[in-house]
Amino acid sequence: MKKLLFSALALTLTFASFAQINTPSPSPGAEISQSVGLTKIMVEYARPAMKGRTIFADKGLVPFGEIWRTGANSATKITLGEDMSLGGVEMKGGDYAVLTRPNAKEWTFMFYPYESSSWNSYTEQEPAAKVSVMVTKSGASVESFTIGVNNVTESTATLDFSWENTLVSIPVKVSVHEKVMADIKRIMAGPSANDYYAAASYLNTSGTDNKLALEYIQKANETKEPRFWMVRREALILADLGRKAEAIEAAKRSMALAKEAGNMDYVRMNENSIAEWSK
């Protein structure tokens, strides 16, 4: 009986030890991240190898005219940090699964909003965008399928797919000049009402400098359409400075604006403050 139990235990431990063996993946996963202009492009994919096989051909590992997962294992995932142009097609920023239909002279790329790692789940869907790109025959043989972001400038790059002696490059273009000019105009124009409000709120709630906080919040409220929460902050700062009569007037302005905006929470807060400061 003891021998039987010992044998069963030994067998169990043997199977457990085999279950923990790790072996290299034939198509290892890869991740790339590349800044282009003021944004990033990221790719998650698996890299199958040639291993002496013919890859792109009528009867190759990836047959011409058939949909390919653009890698191995799971669906290849491409993340666009913001809106950009791929091959002249305007695309929204976000996560995409990419499938391809390779042919001898041209590849068609199909981008789908990323939902799962199962590439088969996209084949019956309508892609969010299609991009067609001409094929280039490279001088060198690439053993492992490779995706890269290359030829990077301040506003352009290429999203390159290479394997065997095939190279397909999607031109990438991002908006840089427009964003930089918008930032320049914003900064040169000086702080916004929101900037003044944020500074005033910090100085007031931290108890750092209520006099400076009042200066900032009054600049925030100089706009033609002051916001009820900003005027409320002015009332609180005035109250903290001991200027109760002015605080009550500011609270009344905030309450009127809150009623107009339909925000009853601020109406009640101002009513309570007015009652407290009127004592």
Give a verbal description of the structure.
The structure is a single chain. The protein has 279 residues and is α+β, with helices and mostly antiparallel strands. The chain contains seven helices and eleven strands. It has helices at 2-19, 177-188, 193-205, 210-220, 228-240, 244-261, 264-277, and strands spanning 29-36, 39-46, 56-57, 62-63, 77-80, 84-86, 89-91, 94-102, 106-113, 129-150, 156-173. It has a nine-stranded antiparallel β-sheet with strand order 1-2-5-8-9-10-11-6-7, with no helix packed on it. It has a two-stranded parallel sheet with strand order 3-4. Helix 3 runs parallel beside helix 5 (228-240).
Number of domains: 2
Helix/strand/pairing category: alpha+beta
**Strand percent estimate:** 25-35%
Count of helical segments? Answer: 7
Across the major sheet, the strand order is: 1-2-5-8-9-10-11-6-7
**Relative helix content:** 25-40%
Alpha-carbon distance between the termini? 91 Å
Low-confidence stretches: none
Mean model confidence by pLDDT: 91
Q: What would you call the quaternary organization?
A: single chain
The radius of gyration over CA amounts to 31 Å
Number of separate strands = 11
Task: Reconstruct the topology from this structure.
Elements: H1 2-19, E1 29-36, E2 39-46, E3 56-57, E4 62-63, E5 77-80, E6 84-86, E7 89-91, E8 94-102, E9 106-113, E10 129-150, E11 156-173, H2 177-188, H3 193-205, H4 210-220, H5 228-240, H6 244-261, H7 264-277
Parallel strand pairs: 3-4
Antiparallel strand pairs: 1-2, 2-5, 5-8, 6-7, 6-11, 8-9, 9-10, 10-11
